[in-house]
Design goal:
Radius of gyration: 19 Å
Distance between the termini: 31 Å
Strand content: under 5%
Order of helices and strands: HHHH
Number of helices: 4
Shape: extended
Number of domains: 1
Largest sheet: none
Structural class: mainly alpha
Helix content: over 70%
Length: about 80
């Protein structure tokens, strides 16, 4: 949580409720399929994170970061 996040946002779970409803609807109401899809998505994101961490450890800069760095240097 950042210093600018309102306290009410921490206790407002409505966006989680909406995300759950959307995920369940995308799986035609099948809760088992919904859980399976979420696990698969999480595994994919974990693999992406590991790849990114390995690239950063090897000294590589992600393309989006390079573009931001170029934008900042040309604006200066």
């Amino acid at each position: 949580m950042s210093a600018t996040t309102p306290v009410t946002a921490v206790f407002d779970n409505s966006h989680y409720e909406q995300a759950c409803d959307q995920a369940i609807a995308m799986c035609d109401g099948n809760l088992r399929s919904t859980i399976k899809a979420l696990i698969m998505a999480n595994e994919y994101l974990e693999a992406e994170l590991e790849e990114l961490q390995a690239a950063v450890a090897a000294g590589c800069i992600p393309e989006t970061s390079r573009n931001r760095m170029r934008s900042k240097s040309s604006a200066a």
